[in-house]
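To make this tangible, this section ends with a sequence with its structure tokens:
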Amino acid sequence: MWGASADLVPDDLWERVAPLLQERPARRFRDPGRRPVDDRAALRAIVYVLCKGVSWRDVPAERFGCSGVTAWRRLRDWTEAGVWPRLQEVLLAELRAAGLPDMDDAVIDASRVRALKGGDHTGPSPVDRARPGSKHNLIVDRHGTPLAITLTSGNRHDVTQLMPLLDAMPRIRRLRGRPRHRPRRLFADRGYDFDKYRRLLRARGITPKIARRGTVHGSGLGKTRWVVERTFAWLHQFKRLRIRYEIRADLHLGLLQLACSIICLSRLRTSF
């Protein structure tokens, strides 16, 4: 697991994050007040919360040189600046240059989590006794590489995020030709079985491979769709994502996007 490593922000991750952060204005020598916390130290504290699932107040400041409050503020600022989607786009471009991801086939699915503190994009979960919950909606390539993720309330139907997920996929650059931003085939389970959306997919040049409701199991689509379940298992190794604690939906989504980037970086390491 990523959190078991000695450095939560290794050099290869920091080299990709640092250019995306806004430079802070230089301080004059005689300026009063404390010096701002180093960005890498703040990122270490953020990844620590993401991996361990502890509250922000329980971040050991003496270990990271950064308090949990400061780490939360940096997460807020970087999320509002759009750092995490750009980081994932950078990593996907590198994966594309290395021969991954495979954009011909994509798989879509959703996973529900409990939302303990409420907030935007929460609703009564139909599978958890109507307790407040949220839903992680994910699209991956045929190898399980996360391409895009969205956050909705727990009572939203899975199919409502099919087109938004496709729209959220970045234009992945490659060495030759135009950037790829849509798959050729899309695999999904019975929750996405609506002819309206099949027509929308075909209008975009995407062949729908969606299981039919009311038919016996054993369609064979599970041989391709299982990779998205594995990616959800990878995401849930980050303990902060198993239950939604953030009241602000954008911050929880930011942590999701950061976790997806870490998964992309892990896949990039194994591609060499």
Summary: The CA atoms of residues 23 and 39 lie 10 Å apart.
